[in-house]
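Here is one such tokenized protein:
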Amino acid sequence: MSISKGSFITFEGIDGCGKDTQIKLLKEQLENNGKEVVLYSNIDHGPLKDVCRSLLEPGNPNFVSSYHLSILVLTNMVITHKHIKDDLLAGKTVLCSRWYLSSLAYGGRKSDIEYDTIKSYIKTLNIDPDLFVYISTDPNIALSRITSRDETNERYDTIDKLNNIRNCYSKAISEQLSPSVIVDGNGPINDVFQEILSYLYFIDR
């Protein structure tokens, strides 16, 4: 798959898969080759970012279901995508930590009806990236990484929920809503990165 300058590449996977580490490495690689790179995420940009982030915190009294939170995050993505399009038109490469596949995996994991409703909503939004990079990681490995960071776990950071979310990601990837590649996220950081680079051969190495 050949990807030109100004592409929109998103990284997906369960918590602890290493996507933010890989985004950082790819950003450095691209910039070393003279490309201008902009970073985004599905939840940390846009006018609803603070609301979305707070609803992920354990013990938040304003609890909403995963389904309704995913709809809120998708609404925020639509607004964020307007800024992403401006960056792409300016010839910049956009790397994003999670996009709409995460809404399917997290928000549609409890029922087929909720999954199908989110998928139908996504199809109306016209916010497709050029490529999804899905980092497939064993939930046990992912949870050990989360624990080693000594951070407060978000609402999904349990082994049962990570397994469930991973299964839902696999379903979403198989439906090929947008071009995607699957990377083995269980190995050492550099091995994972080299596998990612093998798919992105537009990079001058």
Q: What stands out?
A: The longest strand covers residues 131-136. The chain has a mean pLDDT of 87. Strands lie at 8-12, 37-41, 93-97, 131-136, 180-184.
